[in-house]
Description:
Rossmann fold; 2 domains; 8 strands; 14% strand; binds NADP nicotinamide-adenine-dinucleotide phosphate
Amino acid sequence: MLPGMSRKPRIAIVGAGNLAGALAVSLRSAGYRIEQIIVRESAVSRRQARRLAREVGASGVSAARAQIQSDVVWFCVPDSAIASAAESLAEAANWSGKVAVHSSGALTSDELAMLRRRGAAVASVHPFMTFVRGSQPSLVDVPFALEGDQKALRAARAIVRDLGGQPFTIRKPHKAAYHAWGMFASPLLTALLAASERVAVAAGVSRKAARKRVLPILKQTLANYVRLGAPGAFSGPIARGDVATVKKHLSILRGVPGAREVYIALARAALRDLPAKNRSGLEKILKP
Ligand SMILES: NC(=O)c1ccc[n+]([C@@H]2O[C@H](COP(=O)([O-])OP(=O)(O)OC[C@H]3O[C@@H](n4cnc5c(N)ncnc54)[C@H](OP(=O)(O)O)[C@@H]3O)[C@@H](O)[C@H]2O)c1
């Protein structure tokens, strides 16, 4: 409900990609009416918009033709396209009294300044979650970082709570670091797993088998991290100070392009942040 409104706000979503798809379905399940999926004027974009619109009972329209009546407009386009997408919709609505939000983790609500000048209350609303094609993550207990105008924040908080999420406010100067943290939590973790698959192949294990065999240790590591914290979850030759074993790894990893650099960078991070024995011996062999 927007302040002073007795029903749930009607929502228009701009974009039909990974976040838009998952968000639209979750909003619909939480009882929100999605009125429009608004995209660019290309055949591919419009096809995607139509497909998503069908799924959530909305209509798919191009930005050039959109006439927006919705109370909330949620921009789910790449960070670099938020300001231009807002500009392309400047004439598509009477923005006075509306709420416009985007979901960039790194950028602030100022990306929507053009709509703020036209009377909209604006905010950035970032779910600390990963959205990829073919998956519909639950938003229950997902933290959402919020920043922006008071009216937009009130509306966003209510929507996030209806989705089961946990809204919290973030200061504008913190957004870049906040998003870099998120980068570690999922995209870089995935990059680490991708590099680890190449090491598995060097050990005679196929990538497919590696994905399956890694699961128990990965799950237990996450469980330990959550329950015991990083120092308590840390095991292996660095924790034990086993220089000879780390030397063996460094030697064999010369044959796995890229993986050695990742290993050294993370091992050095471990020496900085985590309990290790024989620290000086390890530091010597882990020079980049
Ligand atoms: N994916 C995640 O895990 C995740 C998590 C949290 C927040 N976010 C945020 O969500 C936003 C969208 O990310 P995403 O992963 O959903 O991206 P995406 O899957 O690449 O989807 C982007 C959508 O925007 C459209 N688009 C691209 N360029 C555009 C432009 N110049 N003007 C208008 N529309 C344009 C694309 O359609 P066409 O190119 O076909 O026109 C597509 O529908 C970003 O701000 C991102 O930071 C993403």
